[in-house]
Design goal:
299 residues; 6-stranded mixed β-sheet; 4-stranded antiparallel β-sheet; 14 strands
Length: 299
């Protein structure tokens, strides 16, 4: 279990993380979303033990992370730009990690070569960005981590390799109860993987929910009337966004589907459709609700 308790962090004189509390259960996949500069990477670095918080507690399985070799031995942090030792080949990096991580599995390292078909004698720094990302996953999964922390993990991977990596991650969660915390601006990837999500904005965790509950709590409503729009149509419900498309009104409404349907049906609409939203759409509207909105400007 990952526990972040009332954590704050000043970074270069600014409060990058503000009193964040977060619990991630063992065997779950948590997607961390947020605006640019929200503090996502800072939070991941504290969780991986690369930074120490200024206030609060960061724990994995009840133990503090910073300067704790035993905890770090069970975790692996894959940053947005993977780091490898200079001029090392894949096999040399594998040997390096085998001396650091006690659960390193050489048999699995060779098995994963079927997924990542790159000659192990190749120098990593000579590989393309996408192939270096493959090597990073190859090495990370061979350490058999209990906790895997990923920052923009799919950047540079082609669609086939993305699917292969997703399958490996899901397999490890299913078979070994591995816990994953991933941060990405590719919300489709998070939607395909995560069971819980959190939204970080200006250092504060503004939303933390089960993904299915989040998607069940925000809806797109298409409604039309034979005559004029009834008085009081929007009263008593939480509208995140609304617009007219000809005779049809499109609303983004927060609340349970049954409540929304009951509210609009009392006005006897000619058309009433309630549609699901993607995670990207939910993110845009939730962020708009706290003032982070799309600007309709052309420069």
């Amino acid at each position: 279990m990952i526990q972040i308790k009332q954590v704050s962090k000043l970074y270069e004189g600014k409060e990058a993380i503000k009193n964040v509390t977060l619990v991630i259960q063992k065997g779950s996949i948590f997607g961390l979303l947020g605006s640019n500069g929200a503090g996502k990477t800072t939070l991941l670095k504290m969780l991986s033990g690369n930074l120490i918080q200024d206030a609060g507690e960061v724990l994995i399985n009840g133990s503090y992370v910073f300067e704790n070799r035993e905890v770090k031995n069970r975790c692996f942090f894959l940053p947005d730009t993977p780091y490898f030792l200079a001029n090392y080949s894949i096999m040399q990096m594998a040997g390096f990690y085998s001396h650091i991580y006690s659960e390193w599995n050489q048999e699995r390292f060779y098995q994963l070569q079927e997924v990542f078909p790159i000659p192990v004698q190749n120098k990593i720094h000579k590989l393309s960005k996408g192939m270096q990302r493959q090597v990073a996953f190859w090495l990370a999964l061979s350490t058999m981590p209990e906790v895997l922390i990923l920052d923009e993990p799919f950047d540079g991977l082609d669609p086939v390799m993305r699917k292969n990596v997703r399958q490996l991650l899901i397999q490890d969660v299913s078979e070994r109860d591995m816990t994953i915390l991933l941060s990405s601006h590719n919300l489709r990837e998070i939607e395909d993987l995560a069971d819980h999500v959190g939204i970080l904005h200006r250092g504060e965790l503004v939303i933390q929910k089960d993904l299915n509950d989040l998607k069940a709590d925000v809806h797109k409503v298409q409604i039309a009337f034979k005559h004029k729009i009834p008085h009081g149509l929007y009263r008593g419900i939480q509208i995140l966004n609304k617009e007219r498309r000809g005779s049809v009104i499109v609303c983004i409404v927060k609340g349970k589907e049954s409540m929304i349907k009951s509210h609009f049906n009392q006005f006897q609409p000619e058309i009433l459709d309630i549609l699901p939203l993607t995670l990207e759409e939910i993110f845009i509207y939730e962020m708009g609700d706290i003032g982070y909105v799309i600007q309709n400007n052309l420069v």
